[in-house]
Amino acid sequence: MTNTNQTTEDLSLQRIQEMGLLDSFEPEERFDKLTREAVTKLNVPISTLTILDSKNEHYKSCQGLNEVEGPRAISFCAHALLSKDLFVISDCLKDSRFAENPMVIGSPFIRFYAGMAIYDNKTKLPIAVFCIKDRKPRELTALEIADFLDIASRIEEEINK
What's the CATH number where 97 sits? Predict the structure, then answer.
C-alpha cells in the first residue's frame, strides 16, 4: 500500500530505483541509437535521455556532451519532467527562467531546448526525460515535432521493457 504522504517525485524516484535505471550508466545501444537518430533527424548537436534524482540529472544516453550528469538545480529536464506536454524553449536567452542559467550563458551555450517526460507504464509516473538541445534559437516544424514525439515514444517503449 502506498503512503499517501509520499509525493509524486518520491514515488517516481522509488520506481526509478526499482527499475534499476540509476544502477549503471554504461552505454546502452537501445537508447544510444535513438538519441543518435534525434541528433541526425532533428539536426541538433545535443540529445539526451535523462534520469533525475533529488540532486542531479544523469544522462542514461547522451550525444553531444562529454558530461554524464549535472546539477538538478539548473536542469532544463527538471522542468520537462513536470510538464504533461512537449516542453519547448525556442530561445533560452529570452526566457526569464533560463536566461541566467550557467548552461545558457556558458558552455554548452544552450539556446534551444525541447524535452518530453517519459513515463513508467506500471505507475504512470514520469521517470525520465528525452530531450534535444541546440546552440541557436529555433522553432520546431510540424514534421520535427512528429519526429521528436515518435522517438520519445520509442524511448518510452524501450525503458519499459
Answer: 3.30.450.40
